Input
Amino acid sequence: QVQLVESGGGSVQAGGSLRLSCAASGYTYSSYCMGWFRQAPGKEREGVAGIYTGAGSTYYSDSVKGRFTISQDNAKKTLYLEMNSLKPEDTAMYYCGVRAAGCANLLWRFFDYWGQGTQVTVSS
Output
């Protein structure tokens, strides 16, 4: 059974940094996409960043491009999201998800498994 466990969230001031981690287990896909998503209260879940192992490609939403970096430690089966220059509008619950195919434009509906989320709060 696929399990994803996020950690690393917290409260920071605008301009600060956080690093999120997602420990993954239980899947044996040869190529897959793992992504970071976020959901603010009253808003739809949105894709933030993704990494596709099949081509080694990374994807970012326009709102985080240049500030966030997604990476993966294959040996540890851990996904990371380095978040810099954080803004109040980055405040949300952050989730990691996995899909046994490409990143599907980071559309959350196409992802198969999810973690429980970790809260990020950025104050002005």
